[in-house]
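Listing 4. Sequential folding, example run.
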Amino acid sequence: MTATETTERLFRIGHSPDPDDAFMFYALSTGRVKIPGYFIEHRLEDIETLNHRAMQGEYEMTAISAHAYPSVAHLYQVMNTGASMGRGYGPVVIATRPTTLDALAGKRIAIPGEWTTAHLLYKIYAPAFEKVLVPFDQIMDAVRSGRVDAGVIIHEGQLTYADEGFVKVADFGEIWERETDGLPLPLGLDAVRRDLGPDVIREVAIALSGSIRYGYEHEEDAMEYARQYGRGIAKDLNNRFVRMYVSDDTIDMGEPGRRALARLYEMAVQRGFLAAPPPLDFV
């Protein structure tokens, strides 16, 4: 069935084809949770593509990087629900041999997208470097081949890099936790377009929260659904990764999550990477 075959209006949701997003949107994807009056169309694209689409306001609701939100805040409102936050873990800098962030000053570093939060964190925590933009799923190959001196990995690579023969230079989630006295690290957000109006926005927020809760109430089925997006990782790793990034913080980031997001933008402003923090009028 398509939107034109119903009286419902089209509602496009952009999210990544990754296990954590798949788990989060399981109930919405399978029709177990609905947005009243709307026919949902899911657009599955990598996070950097979604960041760029958000800058054009293409989708009614979308996953975006926390780094990208200041550039789209005039179009989208951050949702309390749906955030991916690390608790002592986050994007990992990897290399083929032991080294340090300081030793990588001026070196070629593979980054999984201009607007990814991984890129912003590297700029905040590491000395100046030569940025090399590489699709997230090709970063290990770029490091292994010597095309770059190190790379920042996201998604399930955070769990598999050691098995692939790489060493950890730094985990930005660990650094963030130490420097913020234990705040969660905001990495990805879900945002809804402002022009939908407060009533629809409220229904969208309720639906997303309901979808995440449904996933945990039917965890075995939701995990199995999510595993098809795991790019071949084992079942136990898939489940571990989902639980890392679909947590209580995802159901509702709460005051700690809101403070963490404000802190991230304050740090970006202090270091000259952002002119001013964006409005944070959460829904």
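-- end of first protein; second protein begins --
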Amino acid sequence: MKRCLGLLSLLIFPLPYSHAQSVDAKQAFAGKWISTVDVFSSQIYMTIDLKQQDRKLTGKFGNDALEGTVDGNSYHFLAKDENGGTEEVTGRLEGGTLRGDVIETPGSDPKHPFRYTFTATLVKTRSAAPPQRHEFTPTVFYRQFSPFNKSVLTINPGDTIHTTTVDAGGADEKGVRRVLGGNPETGPFYVESAMPGDTLVVHINKLRLNRDYAVSDDQLVERAMDSRLAVKMKDTGKDVRWKLDLAAGTATPEKPSEHLVKYTVPLRPMLGCVATAVGPTQAPPNTGDSGGFGGNMDFNEIVEGATVYLPVSNPGALLYFGDGHAAQGDGELNGNALETSMDVEVTVDVIPGKRPPQPRVENATTAIALGIGGSIEDAFRAATSNMASWLTDDYKLTPSEIAQVLGTAAQYKVAEVADRNVNVVLKLDKERLKTLTQSAK
């Protein structure tokens, strides 16, 4: 039934035609559309392409061919899947929205068809307006990567946002607690024309520290210890406050113990969290969690100059970011990095019709595929699969060629082990990819 529900959710229909509109009635149903489908009181979004020739409708309903007819503002079509299932759709155009009913008959259980309703509207095209810069001052911070949180700002692809974040405990640049802790996020930002099945592109232009201290602790996370080390670390877990010397670009413990009096760490500001909202049928994860949507990835190469690629699951993508770190070692072994507030500037874009299986990151020298899973092994596999998909889609490599490239050039890194999910990344030097691009041409 899962496949049937997914196909049903692809219902996309056009705006109604009227003589006041400059729309050809013979093409009123043609185009790319977005639907909101009510499946047993759950909301699903997806897109479809429809073609119209006079009264005849054809096109793709998900991956299934459909055929039907139009009679004024009424329509009817039948879609068939590869397993013998069908979706019979009827409805009318009413006031700019198409409302209708679906009878879905699973091929595996034809005696038990089921019904649901939908509404659908035309997908907005990418704005032709010049890119805008938005100065945004947050007044609310969310603690879930939810599709149900009200968007704080609507922007177009190509636009730039300059804003601030609070630290993981909810304190702002003045040290004032603004919200409960747990990585409260700035956003969500609604990106026009971004639709389920697209990729949201987040260029990180600037990450600037905006206060002179950060907080962490002195423990090690459970995944990082064997039983002997765990016994030695049993009395740790105390808060540690760090002084940030922005001029010198270093961090030092504010009250160093005997052997750390001269210990310093280079500052390297990063975002622990960058995410798109999960789909409306998923339970919204808290902002300490990560997954295919991104989230609390805690990857210390999401820094100024990096570009993050995230899958889109909702209209507008709903972009969140936060959890600024002044510096962090691989794995986030303390469970916290040097947690602090931050000034952030990002530019967003949309790649239509392509959706990565897991987040990806790119910088001037490296392509990085993230793998997020419940264990080191699962995350390792996910990172490998993510990069293999990238090499297939963008470089047209065969399975044999993928194995040869990864076997000779892959670099793995444990990015995060502190939370429910592990993040392992696979890196490829762009010098290796240049030869692939040339051969693909």
